[in-house]
Amino acid sequence: MMPLAGLLIAYLAGSIPFAYIAGKLFKGIDLREHGSGNLGATNVFRVMGWKIASVVMLLDMAKGALPVSLLPARFAPRNPVLWAIAFGVAAILGHVKSVFLLWKGGGKGVATAGGVFLALAPIPSLISLSVWGIVLYLSGYVSLASLASAVTLTIAVAVMVGPTSPIAITCALITAFVFWTHRANIGRLKRGEENRFRRGAKAVG
Fold this sequence. Notes:
Elements: H1 2-15, H2 18-27, H3 41-48, H4 50-75, H5 80-96, H6 110-120, H7 122-139, H8 142-160, H9 166-181, H10 183-191
Helix pairs in contact: 1-4, 1-5, 3-4, 4-5, 4-6, 5-6, 5-9, 6-7, 6-9, 7-8, 8-9
């Protein structure tokens, strides 16, 4: 029962919609009705500017990293690695389908997944984050940067942790999930219709 309690806590932590809260708190808006409609740091940037977006991104990462770092010792001490992975997945699912938003709307899980793997595999995660920054700088597409960093993370974890390790297998599955949540972005990238990060950033008010 203790691990199940940990899963619930991780899911609830992941469900905290920081982007939605920021929209209501600072602009009095429902962010799902502005910009791309996505509750992620990129849309926060487009609608409210980089300062608020930076805070939201860090908080979204924290709600992935903290359950992985803190919950296993308390709720699953006998098998901490596997349960840390499970808690991380629960946090990601909470971000994408938040109970606090009645499972309507949510982010695409990139920042929260980044926090999860930063706790599980720090060095591969830092490599992945570097690739994210480079691709974003060169292309201007957040979606392309996110996809590239997800693939990089999968490869780096497989090389540094082991391709058959539970972390590597989970990473590959999460990367597939990230591609699925970005399927509309992939379509726009193919058609040349995706908005560039640098060009589309406008704050409201």
